[in-house]
Amino acid sequence: MDFVAARAKLIEHLSAEIKDKRVLAAMSHIPRENFVPAARRHLAYEDGPLPIGWEQTISQPFIIALMTEALELIGSEKVLEIGTGSGYQAAILAELVTQVVTVERVPALAESARNVLDSLGYDNIEIHIAEEILGWKRGAPYDAIMVTAGAPNVPSDLLAQLTIGGRMVIPVGSRHIQELCKVVKRQDKTVVRNLGGCRFVSLIGKNAWEK
Ligand code: SAH
User: Fold this and answer.
1) How far apart are CA 153 and CA 144, in angstroms?
2) Digit-coded pLDDT (tens) for 81-123
């Protein structure tokens, strides 16, 4: 299968809606097939989510692009991702900013993401195993936070790890269906904008969903 051609076609498709050229450029040279289990590699450039084991999924490329664009990254940021999963989203963030911290609760996923990211030469991604408090407090504050699992609400523990002026993208809703929310933390208030419907696996933990 010609992954290069398939990837170019996917990026072309995404560019109808996604206007951030840096996001499209990052996605146009990251081999998504490396982040997908071998048996599904032929589907790597379909615009859909794919199972990655442990009942988890690598998100749909369009949603990934939309969420990344919403973070309004210019290059010098430190970004936190919740839910490393395959590591694909972390790779995109690593192309766009100085420093990426990503947290995963399934150790086996964190380990395989580490292997793929190392094999591609990324040296600006820290991967941590999730602890009791959501996020990674020791690295806070972050200029942007991307949550790639669905939460019942915007967790205050994550909001606390965001800088003033920082952006967070997070799916909020029920366990089965959510709205993608863009949260901007201002000095005086927090502004939330709805970017549309989505379906994510559950964010598990304190102030989120039970296992
Ligand atoms: N961003 C990933 C997709 C993530 S799927 C990618 O690019 O492939 C959501 C992930 O969130 C799952 O791997 C799940 O184990 C993880 N997760 C769920 N709750 C979490 C928590 N509290 N902290 C860290 N990771 C969590």
Assistant:
1) 18
2) 999 999 999 999 999 999 999 999 999 999 999 999 999 999 9
Give me the catalytic one of 59, 86, 112, 202. Answer: 59
CATH number at residue 160: 3.40.50.150
Residue 105 falls inside a structural domain: yes
Examine the residue annotation and report whether 156 is marked as an active-site residue of this protein. no
The span from the CA of 104 to the CA of 81, in Å, is 9
The dihedral region occupied by 16, where left means phi > 0, alpha psi between -120 and 50, and beta the remainder, is alpha
Burial class (CB in 10 A: 0-12, 13-18, 19+), 39: exposed
Q: Rounded to whole angstroms, how far apart are CA atoms 60 and 46?
A: 8
Distance in Å, CA 28 to ligand 1 centroid: 23
- CA–centroid distance, residue 201 to ligand 1 (Å): 8
Is the CB of 82 within 6 Å of ligand 1?
yes
Dump strand ranges (E) for 22-64: 50-53, 56-58
* Number of domains comprising the chain: 1
The residue whose CA has the least distance to atom 24 of ligand 1 is 104
Report how far ligand 1's centroid is from the alpha carbon of 53 (Å). 12
pTM above 0.85, yes or no: yes
Pocket lining: 59 vs ligand 1, CB cutoff 6 Å: yes
